[in-house]
């Protein structure tokens, strides 16, 4: 149930986000089920929310907000993580899911991490029969969209 995955992830990231003055707005429909490995789905979402917090905190001015959404659409379970962070330059978009790829190497090194998060995330999404896409505007924000096969919805 995606709500359970989201709750698990929120317990981990919420304290880290509020420490950085980044607020996370959660809008998750109940009763959306996907077939999969709970821990891997947590890892998938954690990577996305970790990025959203990290690259929103890194922005000097403007709002520091994140939206985390889950809903069912046709035969898919949709998960979206939207942020108001630094955004990704257009010429980097096509590389963003590659292993060890990072937009700003100097800054990224300072912030820690390996550049593996999104590569792992895409691997997990594809192993669950899903797809991942992203839209980003440099300097404004980013939205990651994960589409997984829907198992069932409980009203
Ligand atoms: P790790 O996830 O291993 O801790 P990382 O966050 O640098 O390190 P990825 O999660 O794979 O690695 O992301 C790759 C690169 O894509 C990042 O270094 C960053 O430049 C860019 N990026 C990812 N998510 C965002 C985002 N939400 N906003 C802006 N840039 C992003
Ligand atoms: Mg990351």
TrEMBL record:
Domain Histidine kinase: 1-152
Part of the intact protein present: 262 to 416 of 416
Source organism (scientific name): Mesotoga prima MesG1.Ag.4.2
Name of protein: histidine kinase
Location(s) in or outside the cell: Cell membrane
